[in-house]
Amino acid sequence: MKELDRIALFRLSVLGPLISRPSLERGELQTLLRDLAQQEYAIPGSDRRHVAEKTLQGWYYEYLRDGLDGLTPKRRSDHGRSKLTLAVQEALLAAKRENPHRSLATLQQWLEQSGQAAHGSVSRSAIHRLLQQQGLSRPLAGASVPEERRSFLAAHANDIWYGDVLHGPRVRVRGRGRKAYLVSLFDDASRLIPHSAFCLGETALDIEGVLKQAVLKRGVCRKLIVDNGAAYRATTLQSICARLGIQLIHCRPYAPEGKGKLERWHRTFRAQFLSEIALGAPLELDDLNARLWAWIEQMYHRTAHSGLLGETPLARYQEDLAHIRPLGTRAAQLDSIFHHRLRRDVRKDGTVSYHGRGFEVPYELSGKRVWLVVDPHTEQVIGVEDEAGNAIGAATPIDLIANARRRRRKPDTPTAQDPVISTAPSLVDIAVARHYSAINPRPQTDEDPTTGEP
C-alpha cells in the first residue's frame, strides 16, 4: 500500500473542521478559516506555529478538487534539471568553488559583466538551484571542516539565563478578545523559570517587566542570552543589563540550536499548561497569569526533570544558593535602574513633554538639554538628570490655572547712576561734523591758526 505523505496528513488534520462539514452557510468558510489561522500547530519540518488564512483556503480548494493527493506537496516539473547551458553551469561551479563566499548576486553580476550571459537572462533562483544540486549552496560549503556544535551546561544556577517570547492564547480585556504573549526567562543549569508572564505584547517594556520580577525573586544572572528581535536590541534593555552587571548576548540569526533547552520548556508548557487552558473559555489576563504562576511553582518546579538526572528544577537551584548573586545594596535602587531616561530640550517657558503631557522643570534649565527620568510601566515622571546621571530637579505637571495667578520672578532693576560724559567725539558727532562742513564750508582766512590775528 502506498505510504501517505506526512505533510498531506498534517494538512488534512488542520482542515478537519472544514471538510467534516457536509455543507457551509454563506460566509461561514471565511469565519472557519480565520479561526483555524489563529490556532497553533506543530508544522512538520518548520519552526513556525501558524498557517496563513490564504494558505488554508488554497489547501481547502485543492482538497475539494483532488482529495488527499491535492494536499501532497508537488515537485516542480523541472526538478533536478537546470535550464542553464552547460558552459554557464561549468563557469558558475568553478567560480563558486574558487571562492565559496561569492553570493548569488555576485555570481549573477559576474556572469553578465564577463559576457557569458546576457543581462537578465540568468535568474538568481536558477543559480541557487544549480548550486544546491551540487552541494555548494551554503556560503562555506567548500570548507572541509564543518561548524562544530557541542552541548553544554552552565556550572551554576544563574550563570546563564535565556529569554524568549511564545505566542499564547486569547484573553479577555475589557470585554474584548486580545492575543497574549508568554515572556519567559529560563535558567540553564537548573531548568528553573526565574519568572514568566503573559503580556499583551512582546515589546522591550514587557521583557523588562519580566526581568525585574525575575531579579527580585531569583537574584541577578551573569549572562542573558536572547534572540535578535528589535525588542531585545532596545537601548533601554541594554542599559538595564549594564547597570545590573548582566552580560547581554544576542544569538546568531537563524541559529535556534543555541536555545534548545528553552525550546524544550516551551514544548512542556504547551503540553501541560496551554492544552488544559484551551479547554475552557478565554480568561482575563490577571486570572491567566495567576494560573500560570501557580502551575510553575507547584507543578513544573517540583517535578523531576530527565535532564537533571531525576532532580527537580527547584532542588537543583537551591543547591547553588551560595553562588547566587543577590541584589544587595542595589535593591534600594532597583526602581531607578529600570527607569527610562529620555533626552529632552527644555523650552523657553521651562517645560518638557512626555506622552503628550507637559511638565515644568527648574526654570534655570530653559534652553538646555536634560534627561527626563520616567517609570515606563506607570508612565510617571520622576525628575530630570544631567548627562552624567546627576539629579538636577523635579518635573511637575503643568497647572495652567495656577500659573495664571503665580507671581513671576523678574530680573533685578539696575540702580540709577550719574551719567558718564565722554569728551571724545562719537561716531555720530564725526558724521555730523563731516556732513555739515561739506554743506556750509567755513570761509578761508589768512589768520594765524595759533593767535587768530592776520
Could you characterize the architecture of this molecule?
- The structure is a single chain.
- This protein is 36% helix and 16% strand.
- The protein has helices spanning 6-14, 16-19, 28-37, 53-66, 68-71, 86-98, 104-113, 124-133, 204-218, 235-244, 260-277, 285-300, 313-319, 334-337, 400-405, 427-439; strands at residues 160-173, 176-187, 195-199, 223-226, 247-250, 340-345, 351-354, 357-360, 369-375, 380-385, 391-393, 396-397.
- The strands form 3 sheets. Strands 3-2-1-4-5 form a 5-stranded mixed sheet, with helices on both faces. A 4-stranded antiparallel sheet has the order 6-9-10-11. The chain has a 3-stranded antiparallel sheet with strand order 7-8-12, with no helix packed on it.
- A hairpin with a 2-residue loop joins β1 and β2.
- α3 packs across α4 and α7 (104-113) crosses α8.
- The model is unreliable at 140-144 (pLDDT under 50).
